[in-house]
Amino acid sequence: MSDIQGRLDAIRRRIDTACQRAGRAESEVSLIAVSKRQPVDAIRAALAAGQTAFGENYLQEGMDKQAELAEPGISWHFVGPIQSNKTRAAAANFDWVHTVDRLKIAQRLAQHRVESNRDQPLDCCLQVNVSGEASKAGAEPDEVPKLAREIAALDGLRLRGLMTLPEPADDEASQRAPFAELRRLRDDLRADGLELDTLSMGMSADLEAAILEGATLVRIGTAVFGPRD
Ligand SMILES: *Cc1c(COP(=O)(O)O)cnc(C)c1O
Fold first, then answer.
1. Which of 55, 178, 186, 217 is 20 to 30 Å apart from 69, CA to CA?
2. What pLDDT score was predicted for residue 151?
3. What's the whole-model pTM score?
4. Chain segment 137-173, per-residue pLDDT in tens
């Protein structure tokens, strides 16, 4: 478990180096440690090393960990596929949902957040299926302008930006292409008047490419925690 401190230090160095290459300030990129299928003790070790933002893919697993940890100051990011029968629990228990990909889900999350006892709106990203997204989830790029505008208008939600999960690629140029596409979509939304500050993109294998294309949140699992069970 003490490996986690060393791995976090190594990731932070990778982020800093990528920011320097991109001519960006290190403060523009935040690390979300994706702790899915990792034990609570691994999260405790990361907390002890100063990591406070965690990502979970499975709602029940995430809520079980939240109950066990019950520490203030953690921000919980839901990064898994979200079904409509899970929106109430997601809206009440997470600070962010990265995987909103249709209006019905957004409306349910918004309504359930308003009904919950949380006083902040739920931060969310619209997931986009840019060229060859691995998971096949996500809105199509041509739906994004209308959908983003509809989501941004919902009480209870705060649309922060866009998220994608591309097909793995080995070379940096291929890794950058889908991230560049997501960035262009975000730039168009901004030009259209939406105030978006987030690009959620980049994982253990491609965080450099994502940062070069403007990522503000990188979601890192195995490079922080080691292999999953
Ligand atoms: C698992 C997962 C990650 C982390 O992936 P690693 O390759 O382990 O860094 C990031 N984002 C999402 C949506 C995931 O499901």
1. 217
2. 98
3. 0.97
4. 899 999 999 999 999 999 999 999 999 999 999 999 9
pLDDT of residue 135: 72
| CA 223 to ligand 1: nearest atom | 9
Residue given tokens 């203030």 in the structure block: 72
* Residue of minimum CA distance from atom 5 in ligand 1: 221
Write the residue with the smallest CA distance to atom 14 of ligand 1.
Answer: 79
Measured by CA distance, the residue closest to atom 12 of ligand 1 is 79
Give the Å distances, CA to CA, from 107 to 101, 131, 169.
11, 26, 34
Which neighbouring-strand residues pair with 122? Answer: 157
DSSP states of the chain:
-THHHHHHHHHHHHHHHHHHHHT--GGG-EEEEE-TT--HHHHHHHHHTT--EEEESSHHHHHHHHHHH--TT-EEEE-S---GGGHHHHHHH-SEEEEE-SHHHHHHHHHHHHHSS--SPEEEEEEB--TTBTT--SB-GGGHHHHHHHHHT-TTEEEEEEE--BPP-SSHHHHHHHHHHHHHHHHHHHHTT----EEE---TTTHHHHHHTT-SEEEESHHHH-S--
Residue ranges around ligand 1 (CB below 6 Å) = 34, 36, 57, 79, 165, 203-205, 219-223
Arithmetic mean of pLDDT, 196-202:
98
